[in-house]
Amino acid sequence: MCSYEIDPRRVREVVAVVLAGGRGVRLDPLTRDRAKPAVPFGGIYRIIDFALSNCLNSGLKRLLLLTQYKAHSLDRHLNLGWHRFFCRDLGEYLDVLPPQQRVDDQWYLGTADAVHQNIYSLERASPRLVVVLAGDHIYKMNYHTLVKAHEDSGADVTVGALPVPREQAVEFGTMEVDASGRVRGFREKVPDPPPYAADPSKALASMGIYCFSADFLLEQLRLDASDPCSRHDFGHDILPRLVDTHGVHAFLFRDENRKRDAYWRDVGTIDAYFEANMDLVGVDPQLNLYDDLWPIRTHHPSYPPPKFVFAEEGHEGRRGEATDSLVCPGAILSGGHAHRSIIGPGVRVNSYARVEESIISEGVDIGRRAIIQRAIIDKDVQVPSGATVGLDPEEDAARGLTVSPGGVTVVPKGFQFEVSPEVGFSETAARVH
Fold it and tell me: Measuring CA to CA, which of 159, 218, 234, 287 is 20 to 30 A from 354?
């Protein structure tokens, strides 16, 4: 699982704080009813499952998960699938902490403020080290290697770092690092990121993963909370302020995915989310979900196996089949065809329907002869017979559907197609209820 044995005594002194309150505005409409970490990914997973699985696989079993925005879906997922992995009798826990206004009467103002408002829970846990991480990225990482590097360097704070193309780095905090790994400059989301010394075509981006010595973190959170000019954010405020006065070190991301290139995705936009999901249907996807040494855990509802029925020959023959696709439990392809798609749990694809290069979420029913192409259909949507989605982005937009800059059509939860009895479906109007 990792290159050296995990020391159980060391990890018992670590608390992981998972920031899972993200609103995910750029993922709308997938985040209209749920926080970004609760958005489905890869058919059976939620985005949060990757950070939590990393914690579990790294031996970190004292977790504080901070929620805020529309957290019901996330809370339900955690209650159904995650608390069973932690034994309180052994000092293990996954505590979900919504905003309590314990420190003041504000909602979370930034990432640092979110941790500061839960400073009471951190003090009660009495950790020696604190790992702070985001709950809305897709990757595999052994946080124990980060902890070990932090201790070996004697740093006050260690920042997970990843080289990314400079044109993409404008969306991240970027660092200037000397030969020893010490951070000499940190700037958040600047238009001209500094080049990475090892590869000037790239910049060294912060992954939003930090390891702090606990006493030092608490001190810095209090100082930041008392600063009226601060945005109370780790990337904007705390880290840039510490670079000149304290030991801030970068830790290069070590991927547990065992592929040639390190895999880390910020699925913060519809197009990025779509492409990351589509990566999974490839013959040799860069993200390996079939990995016994680094399993990604989740809640598994009691669905029966997927089913493919009808195998009629001929031009109009029905054939239930899926090619180059992920098909989840409970799905039935009843004479329908899926290609390069993710078919979620409990989905039904009816006779002669065709799904191509699409993400179909749990409980969706696709009617006979419907055509879905380059689309995302959220949970429990009923697609009527003969419907088309994704064939004409302009028509989709006129119906009130979201069409991404990359041409991906999104059908949100609760969307109902209206078919006028006087016209064909090509002239259909639609509305969201």
Answer: 287
Residue that has been written with the tokens 């302020």 in this structure: 241
Is the Cα torsion angle 313, 305, 382, 396 positive or negative in sign? negative
Q: What is the location of CATH 3.90.550.10 in the chain?
A: 8-279
According to the per-residue pLDDT averaged within each range, which of 8-22, 32-46, 101-115 is highest? 32-46
Residue 190 CA to residue 169 CA, distance in Å, equals: 8
pLDDT mean across residues, the chain: 90
DSSP for residue 88: G
CATH superfamily, region 8-279: Spore Coat Polysaccharide Biosynthesis Protein SpsA; Chain A (3.90.550.10)
Helix, strand or coil for residue 209?
strand
- Does the pLDDT value for residue 431 go beyond 70? no
CA–CA separation, 116 vs 217, rounded Å?
Answer: 9
| 4: pLDDT strictly greater than 60 | no
**307-432 is a CATH 3.40.225.10 domain:** no
Q: Is the peptide bond before 29 cis (omega within 30 degrees of 0)?
A: yes
Greatest distance between any 2 Cα atoms in the chain: 75
- Residue 250's pLDDT is 96
Are the C-beta atoms of residues 136 and 20 closer than 8 Å to each other?
yes
